[in-house]
Every structure is written in C-alpha cells, then in structure tokens.
Amino acid sequence: MKNKSYIGISFIVLLFGIWAVPKIVAKFQKSDLYLVGPVPAFELTDQNNKKISDKDYLGKAYVVEFFFSSCPTICPRMNQNMLQLQKEFYGKPDFGIASITIDPTTDTPEQLKAHAEQLGAKHYNWHFLTGDKAYIFKLAQTGFNLYAGENKNVAGGFEHSGMFALVDKEGNIRCRRDEFGNPILYYDGLEQPGIDMLKEDIKKLLEE
C-alpha cells in the first residue's frame, strides 16, 4: 500500500511539474515586440540634482519623451498622457519614465522639480532630466531619431516630436508592428490610441 501511495503521489507531482514548467517559462519569454535597437547611452541630471544615466534604468521598462516645462503647445498633453502611464503602473518598481527637457537653460533641476510637483509626478522612477543643450539635441536627433530644435518663430521657441520611445529592461528600444507588419518605431504621445497601445506593450515588457 505504501508503494502504491508513493507512486500515486509521484505521478501527481510529475503531472503538476509538466503543467507548471511551461507556465513559468512562458512568463519569461520575449514578447512579440519588435527590437528597434539599443537605447543611446546618456547621463543627465534629474529634478533632485542627481546624475541619472541609461544604466539606472536597466531592469526597468520605461518611456522616453522630449519636452520643456514652458511649452505652450503639445507638452501639456504629453505630460497628461504620461500621468496616465504613472497611474497605470504606479505600484511597479520595474517601470519608469524619462522626461528630457530641450530647454535646459530654463529647465534647471529646481525648475523641473517645481514642474514635476505641479504636474503631480510621484512615481519614484519618473525622472525629469536636464543637461547641456547641444548634448540633449544630439541625443534626441541622432540617438533616438526624435526631432528637437530651436525655432524663434514658433510659440515657446522650440519644436520637438510628440512621440514616445519605449525601452525594455535590457536597454533596447522596442515597438509593435502595424497592420501591414511594419514596426511603428515610436508611439503617439498625443492621442489616446497611442497611449492605449503603449499601456498594452509596457505590460508585455514587464512580463519578460
């Protein structure tokens, strides 16, 4: 009887193992998101006057935007959409946001801290980053391939992309594909459909 009981228990354990292992493996498999390429290396200063680099975001899925605090056009909408992401992933320590100013002359760490507080940015991995202007423009334009530049003829004096970049835990820019199978590269940071897609894809990266 003891041998039969032992065999029965062993069989149950074996069945559970066969069922459970694929579940565990699946959790850590790569998602179907397209790998655009490695995030450009960067080191900037955040709203708490702390040096933050791309290495500080390793182990986190995070979103990158280029903005400036006095922007009178698209930035307020972009920031509000970032607040949606903060709300969605507030309790996730492996989620983050990098909001990089393109007007570092105005956007000192002190100014960015006041802006973050006014906005309601509370996630501990949401860094508002500033640094040398030429460095930031190069980072935007040739690092992320997102447009940023000065234009005295437009409101606010600066122009920039309204797209968000999504970076995985290993420091790679990732994205989904469109209905034709082409990678979208970046996510629309202005319209709700883009934010909804971003929420779905952040969840995928958090599961990797």
TrEMBL record:
InterPro entries tied to this protein: SCO1/SenC, Thioredoxin-like_sf, Thioredoxin_domain
Keyword entries, A-Z: Copper, Disulfide bond, Membrane, Metal-binding, Transmembrane, Transmembrane helix
Residue intervals of the Thioredoxin domain: 33-200
Disulfide bonds: 71-75
Transmembrane segments: 6-25
Gene3D superfamilies: Glutaredoxin
Pfam families assigned: SCO1-SenC
Gene Ontology terms for molecular function: metal ion binding
Binding site for Cu cation: 71, 75, 160
Domain of life assignment: Bacteria
Classification via PANTHER family: ELECTRON TRANSPORT PROTIN SCO1/SENC FAMILY MEMBER, LINALOOL DEHYDRATASE_ISOMERASE DOMAIN-CONTAINING PROTEIN
Family to which the UniProt record says this protein belongs: Belongs to the SCO1/2 family.
Protein name per the record: Photosynthetic protein synthase II
Organism: Flavobacterium suncheonense GH29-5 = DSM 17707
